[in-house]
Amino acid sequence: MANVLVVDDEPNILLSLEFLMSHAGLTVTTAPDGETALLRIADSSPDLLLLDISLPGISGFEVLEQLRRTDTERHLPVIMLTAHGREVEREKGFALGADDYVTKPFSTQQLVDKVKALLNERAS
Amino acid sequence: MRGDLVVIGTAFSYLALLFMVAAWGDRRAEQGRSLIGSPTVYALSIAVYCTAWTFYGSVGRAAQYGPSFLLIYLGPTLAMLLAPFTLRKMVRIAAQQRITSIADFISARYGKSSRLGALVALMALITITPYIALQLKAITVSHAVLMNYPLGADTTLDNERFWMDRSFWIAMVLAVFIILFGTRHLDASERHEGMVAAIAVESLVKLIAFLAVGIFVTFILFAGPAALLAEVAATPALMHSMRLENVPGGATGWVGMLLLAFLAFFTLPRQFQVLVVENVDEQHLDRASWLFPLYLLLINLFVIPIALAGLLLGEGDPDSFVLTLPLSAGLEGLPLLVFIGGLSAATGMVIVETIALSTMVSNQLMMPLLLKVKGLYSGRHGRLADWLLNIRRVAILLILLLGYLYHALIGDSYSLVTIGLVSFAGVAQFAPALLIGLYWRGATRQGATLGLLAGFFIWFYTLLLPGFAQSGWLEASLITQGPWGISWLSPYALLGLSGWDIYTHSLFWSMLANVGLLVGISLFTRPTPMEQTQAALFTEAMHPHLPTTARWQGQTTEGALYTLLVRYLGHGATLRVFTALDAPLGDAEAYQRPASGELITRAEQALSGSLGSASASVLINSVLRGEALDMESVLTILDTTSQALEYNRRLEQKSQELARVGEELRSANERLREVDRMKDEFVAMVSHELRTPLTSIRSFAEILRDTPDIEAEKRQHFLGIMVLESQRLSRLIDEILDLARLESGRLSLKPVPVDLALVAKQSSEALARLHDEQGLTFEFIAEVSTAMVLADPDRLEQVIINLLENARKFADTQQPRITLRIYEYNGAFRLSVEDNGPGIPVAERENVFEKFYQLKLKESPKIQGRPKGSGLGLPISRAIIHHLGGKLWAETSTLGGTALQLELPRHSV
């Protein structure tokens, strides 16, 4: 079973994502901020990351940057989640190596589909 | 008793002496060793102001009206004290423009107008004739008194046989004398140095004579002034006549008389002649400005003692006291000296006045007429200079004949002083055109002409005409009842203005019309370019960079100018003009060589000095081809210095202003960009903040939709979250709208007097349940029982709840603790909310009042996981408090956390 790490500082969003992912048959770990997220990745080496950008402490972008610099997690699939709808941020996310970019509020079905598609891509 | 031969012999000897002085003075001038290069001579020549009128009439007037005669001398004293402002300018203009008379001066000021010049000349002639008559009368009367004493002087004329009349012969003798030393030279602007020297001598003679009588009367006839006064004191009627208020017309009479003398001092043709035309050095004014008033003081010193003595001794006509007092004492020599003194005063006046008038007649009346007859000046009838001299000689003769006629026909009905004052009031009409023209560039020719005409007409009607009536030449009812019985047209009470003396009355109406028309018409007429040029040259005369005269622009040859000058000035004067500029004379090419602008200017000045500015202008124009005048060049030269500086200054000012405006624009633009950026950021933040609760709501809603088999407990939980997030969303929208209204000023607060302590208490109670749930220790400390402030109670409660909520969020998680304190500080009320949380770093304190600011420092891990607010509570609170005139800021709390401080001004009832 694939392991998904969800990072968001909003407890309610975290709760909904957790429910969605487990309902889709995935194992879910959560982190409320960037630093916790990095620790969790090192601990449990997830198969996919749902990463919010606005986080207390280090931001989602910084987390992504650090991941891409490591040897082990360079290819970890990352979907950015953000309430910022601006084009520049979407581009910045892709430039840093995000695999997909989802604007809040999102369609839960589409998000689940994207997660599944990415995991399948990696599996094959 | 006294041989007529002795008297007449002495008189002629005296005239001969004067003539010798004049001839000597002229010769010295020709040799270049001027006699009159002294300011003392200049000051003495100004004393031509003191005529026979002063010599005999002052005593007469003092006997009749007390000390008021002094006003006639205070006017000129005032004028001399003001010389640096008026006379100096007139002298400089006259030198620059080579002015020959007051008529020339006024004509030149108003665009070298020959008509205006002729008008002034004609008016001067009419005005001055009675004055000359007065001098003839004085000589005749004084001679008769001297011969017939102690019998009354019979001065009635024998109209049948005028050749038996002494005054006729006196007039003729004076005419010959004046012709002899007044018209030796043509060029009036080369000055009559001999005449000035003679006048200076005359002034000394009349002063000595008058002082001699005064000393004799005061110290010999009476035993000094004290004794004289003692006798006067014993006669109450005399005491009364010496009182100051004894002037006719009262206080208005004083002012009128002073003004009259002040104005006439500038405008009497003879005064203008000696003060302005004959002035050789502007600096002479400095000494004259005190020496001449001193002269006036000396000559008036004994007027009152003589008048009192005459009245005490009952010596007949007061106008003759000066003569009759020494005669009554049986003296031989002193009366003769007095007669010579009086003769001196009279002849001095007649000489200067007649020369001034004849210059005007020839330059302002005859020359323009002659120039109209084209053949006369373009033909080759020999030297026109001789013509002009002859015109002047005839004019002198005619002027004296006119004076004689006036004296013979009218003179007897007036006292000396009266005739003098009539003339004063007449020449005073020149003053507006002269003095206003000196300072106001806007005065125009039409304004001056109409003002002069109106003023002159009123003078004629209110002073001269009644004189004819008093002499019996007109019905006496003209004065008493007005013409045709119309009383408001009565010459002495025009429009019913009565109670003033006749001179002040006449001066008032004539000046009102004169000045009114001059100013009024000038405002509505456009000056010609020539007028503008001359107006500029006159008003700016003291300007250091002034060109001496208008520049000529046309073309002519040196030869043509030479021919012109020779015909009007003779060879000598022409030679001086040309050699001054090193222009070669008389060679064959002269008629091909174009004349330089400077030569043309010099030629015009030389002609002006002889013929007056108007005629000179016409003559130069006659040989000039092309445009006559270039006003702009004059104004340009005038303006280059002063205005260039001004222009530079303004330019500098403008560029500084421009730089400042540019800087302002840049910073305004910067601010606008900043505001724009902040607005973008705000919109982005708002959308971010709205999206967050919306995300939760949508996600849970979709989960519930897509998962029909979800267990009931979870479903309830998720629905609960959706409700809370919806509330959060609407609260957020409310706050955003609040803030937008506060920032744009559209939020209307309704401040009323309210007790801050009470509102704080209510707010705390509203949150009490939350505090209990959290196990929070809340302390409410009111150091004052009431704290009245002006505030909107609902908004104030909103702020306090905000502060408490903020504190609750940041208070210590283990043992949360909040203190609310109300106290007085520096006459204001303060409310502080303190918590025992982690506190805010000093650098971040102001940031918490920024919109959507969330503390998210790495160094403050303690705040992680705490409930998040909208990030708008503190900014809204601060905006509200600012609107209420208070302050809101953050400090470090004594409890270890944050202290939010609120201050509102005390409301005193």
UniProtKB/TrEMBL annotation, chain A:
<dbReference type="InterPro" id="IPR039420">
    <property type="entry name" value="WalR-like"/>
</dbReference>
<feature type="modified residue" description="4-aspartylphosphate">
    <location>
        <position position="52"/>
    </location>
</feature>
<keyword id="KW-0597">Phosphoprotein</keyword>
<dbReference type="InterPro" id="IPR001789">
    <property type="entry name" value="Sig_transdc_resp-reg_receiver"/>
</dbReference>
<dbReference type="InterPro" id="IPR011006">
    <property type="entry name" value="CheY-like_superfamily"/>
</dbReference>
<keyword id="KW-0902">Two-component regulatory system</keyword>
<feature type="domain" description="Response regulatory">
    <location>
        <begin position="3"/>
        <end position="119"/>
    </location>
</feature>
<protein>
    <recommendedName>
        <fullName>Response regulatory domain-containing protein</fullName>
    </recommendedName>
</protein>
<keyword id="KW-0804">Transcription</keyword>
<keyword id="KW-0238">DNA-binding</keyword>
<keyword id="KW-0805">Transcription regulation</keyword>
<dbReference type="Pfam" id="PF00072">
    <property type="entry name" value="Response_reg"/>
</dbReference>
